[in-house]
Structure formats: C-alpha cells, structure tokens
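Reader question, answered in our methods column.
A reader sent in the components of a multi-part assembly and asked whether the whole thing could be modeled at once rather than chain by chain. We filled in our standard form and ran it. Here is what they sent:
COMPLEX SIZE: two components
ENTRIES:
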Amino acid sequence: MAENEKVKVAIVGSGNIGTDLMYKLLKAPGHMELKMVAGIVPESEGLRRARELGIETTHEGIGPVLEDPEIKIVFDATSAKAHVRHAKMLKEAKKTAIDLTPAARGPYVVPVANLTEHLDKDNVNMLTCGAQATTPMVYAVSRVTPVLYAEMVSTVASLSAGPGTRQNIDEFTFTTARGLEKIGGARRGKAIIILNPADPPIMMRNTVYVIPEGDFDEEEVASSVERMVAEVQEYVPGYHLKSEPVFDERETPWGERRVIILLIEVEGAGDFLPKYAGNLDIMTSAARGVGEQFARHLLGIKKEAVA
Amino acid sequence: MIRAPRLTDTSLRDGSHAMAHRFTREQVRDVARALDEAGVPVIEVTHGDGLAGASIQYGFSKTPEMDLISEARSVCTRARIAALLIPGIGTVKELKEAAERGVEIVRICTQCTEADISQEHFEIAKEMGLEAVGFLMMAHMRDPEFLVGQAKLMESYGADCVYIVDSAGAMLPEDARERVAALKDALQTEVGFHAHNNLGLAIGNAIAALEAGADQIDGSLRGLGAGAGNAQTELLAAVLDRMGANPDLDVFGLMDAAEYIIAPMMPFQPFPDRDSITIGYAGVYSTFLLHAKHAAERFGLDPREILVELGRRQAVAGQEDWILDVAVELAHKKKQGAA
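And here is the structure of the entire assembly that came back:
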C-alpha cells in the first residue's frame, strides 16, 4: 500500500538549516526516509551528528546524492550560488529540488497557500523565513476581501541571522515583498527586517499590516485569519498570534484607511537550533511540509494534508 | 581648542519624524535654500527612517522622498545632498534612484551591533562614487570598545566617516566623549556624532564629542527631529563661533532660517517634555515618541508606561510595531486587574 511506502530524500548542506531539517525529518518522517546528508566539511557538526545518528553522509557535496537513483527529493540548504549549479544537476538527475536558498530557480511555494499548484514542478523555492511567516496571513485576508497593500515587519534575534542573510539583506526585502504580492495576493507588498541583539534573545516577531481594497467585514477577516493560523500550526507548532487582530485608522497614500494589524510570534521547536530562532524553524518546518506533500504526490496519495 | 567640524543639517530627514513625514516640496525648497545660503555644507533629505521608510510601520510620506531630494538639489548652489539608508528598510535600488536625483552622500545606518549587514551597501555606494558615512545607531547600548569593532567593520567596507549616534538621546557628555575618543583612536577615517536632546544634553554632548576629536557633527534647525529633537543647528553655529571653531557658517542667517522658515511650519516644538525625557531616561529610540502617544491614546495608557517597558525589552531602532505589542499587553493586564 502506498500509505506505508516512503520516498527517499537527501539534504545537501550540513549547516544550521540542514542540520535542523535533519532532526525534523527524523522526528516526523511522514512519507519520507532520510537517506543521505551531504556537506563539504567532513568535521562539520552537521555531518558529525548525522554520522552519529547512523545516517549515510558524504563530504563530497552533491555528487553522491546525484548518483543515488533511490533518492527522489533533495532539500538544498547550501547557498544561492551553489543552488544555481545544483538546480541544473538535480533536474538532469530527475530529482525534485526543494530550495531553501534565495536562488529561486523554481516557483515560490508557501505550503498553506499555493503548494498544490506546483506539485508537478521539479524545483520549488521556499522564499524567506519572513515570507513563510507572513504570506499565509496576507493570503488569509485576500481570500475573503481583495488586498490593496500588505506590509510585513520581521524582527529576529541577531544570533539567529547567519552570514547568508547578513551579506545580502536586500534579497530578503525584495523576495519577501514579492511573496506578499504573488502568493499573498496583495496588489503591492513591502517588507522590512530588523535584527535585535537583546539578551536573552527575542523570539521571531512579525507584524503584518493589510489594507483591503474596499470595505470589509472585520469578523470575516478575523475568522479567516484564525483558521489560517491553525493550518500553519499543523506544520509549525510554535506559530501563534500575540493578540486578536487589531483594526486601526491610518493615514495612507490612499487616504485615511482602516488597517488590519496582525502580531505574530514564532517559537522554534528547538530541534537543533534554539527556540528563539523561530525564523529558522519556520523555514525547516515549511520545507519538511513541502517535502511531505511531494512525497505523497509521488506515491499517488490523493488525500490532502498539510504535513 | 577644537577644530571646526563639518556640519550636516538633518532638519529635512530627522525633522521628518516630527513633521509626521508631511514635508511639502515648497517647505523643502525653502529650508534647503536657507541652509545653502548660510553655508551649511551637507543637507540630509529623506524619509525619517531613511530611503523607502514610507510605510504603515513608520508613516507614509506626504510627498515622495525622491521628489523632495530633487527639490532640495534644485535650490542648492554649494551644499551637497545626503540621504539616509537603513539596510533592512531601504535597499541599493532606492540608493541608485537617490543618486540619480542628486544625492552625493549616503549615510548608511545600522543598529550599533549589526554593522555587518551594511557591507553590500557601502561597497555599492563607493562603486557609484558616493561619499559613504556609517551610522551606528543606539550607541548608548554598547561600550566604546565594542563600538570600535563595529566601526572598524564599516571602515573596512569603505566608510569615509563613522558616526556615534545617540538615537535615544540617552548619553551623558562623558558617554559621548569616551565613545568618540575610542573611535578616533582606532580608525583612520573621520568620526562623527549625532545628538538627541531628550535629556537636554544635545549641545553639551555635541561639544563633548568635538572636544574628543569628532570631525563631523549633526544639527537641525530649531532642533526639528525625533523625540526632543537634535542639537539645534543655529545654536551649534553660535557656540562654535564663540569657541573659535566656526566652519564658515552664517550664524545670523541660520538663526533667521530657524525663526522664519522652520518655526512657522513645525507642528510642535520638540522639547524635553515628559514623554521625551522618558525616552532618554529609558534609552529607547527617539522616533517612538509620536507612535507611543498614538498607541497610548488608542488603548487608554500613559505613554511613559509603554516607553519604559520598551526599554526593558531592549527594543532597537525601527521596532515601532513593538509599541503596539506592548500597548495591547499593558491594556490587557489593566483590564484583568480591574475585573
């Protein structure tokens, strides 16, 4: 029976993200079996931990993953530059790529919003942590009333922002804003990221501001948001609203408007990374959710499920 | 003895906060023209939160900032135009447009612990031939030695000057002095100081910074800026003149600009009043002032409770959304307490 079958998967990249994803795949494999973890530094903590857990590892990069015909789905947690190369190789090797880098060779996916449209693609991109945290909220509004403008502000603990983010923070801004538009359904999107060095480190915080096109029913919006939070929680348990939606009047380029304000906190599961790093957790959790959907699709399991 | 510093007037950038980002083209032209005529060499024009700051989070600009930059540029004969860029808010895309509009100096601004997010912006600014100034915000939160490390990063990325920025107006003269002195000691580049008057020390801190060797200093006419405002440009000019360190500023011309051009357009005179003093005292970002007042009114709170709690949570520059968080929580607690 397909229900009991597993699709073999691999992780390329043995840094923080790859390692946290490894723990998530071991904790909740679903229809996936983690076959290999690939890195380039033999003594890296990620590869060492994988070896200790009895998982096949390689420090020769993506090569051995490509050569293994059993592996069907590959999570790429390397860098944008590396993924541009990997994307081509994975396509040739007929493997599905789930891209956690900013390379974006394939379409953007957010599990609760648009993943089902892209299950036939061979490469999908996970956007940014901020987009995974906030796009579902904009989508929740736009599915009940058209959205003119959506803005998100992500505040993450300084300790959880790695060199990739720091060297290319503009990329976060552009990609996240595009996600709010393309997947969230806002006519215009804007993204802001702030790093906070407080000690002890803060949980990832996101504020989403939404301006609908016209009049809207506050209860209908609140109820759609509440349902969406529950859907996201299925794959990111630490995702929650800090308060009921707030409705406030603001001066905007479109005159005085009623603005929907959603305050979101993301607590990480603490699988490998600390709990405050909700920004990293939501990436690995969402990637795991996407992997599971692809695995079910490959196995021909029709039943809809998020995780 | 101090040396005559280079003065940057930020009425049209930091002042944007106090104006709730409502500057008109005409106002910007009038202010820029007066500053230019009075010999101010650098005029900063941007949304208060820098390029692309226009947002629900910080407030939308009444007039697009790029148009304001063009207006300022069009009336200046000697002064150069500067723009503020806060990575995470603005990007190199807006920087390029600002340069096309006539910006020659970019001031690249990060929380004083996060200088390493500014590398790409410095490198691209230098490639574009711009002068690039580094801004270490909320510098009261870290000691001089730590700030030296961050300033050195900016220097290594190509900064022509690094500023100690007292965004919270929380520094005492000694704090300003030792931070500027440490940077002067460790860096090859110039060092600057940006003051806020929340504790009534803006001019005093600016002078302390100059005594410690600062090469550049910021002011705004009538102190028009966030919180209790900045060191007043016209007052700096008068004091520098008395100290024998006037960098060719027309003291009376600046007084007139403050009196006849800025004062009539100001919605209020920034001043160390109850809420602004609290900002300096609690060490929170000066621009929280108007947002905290708005939230306090909305939720029936005292703005000071919100500001002190934000200080306790170590909120940093740009976190205006935490004001709402805190207000919602405090209001909820009060309701529970009353029930």
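What stands out: Chain B has a mean pLDDT of 97. The first strand of chain B starts at residue 6 and ends at 9.
Send us your own complexes using the same form.
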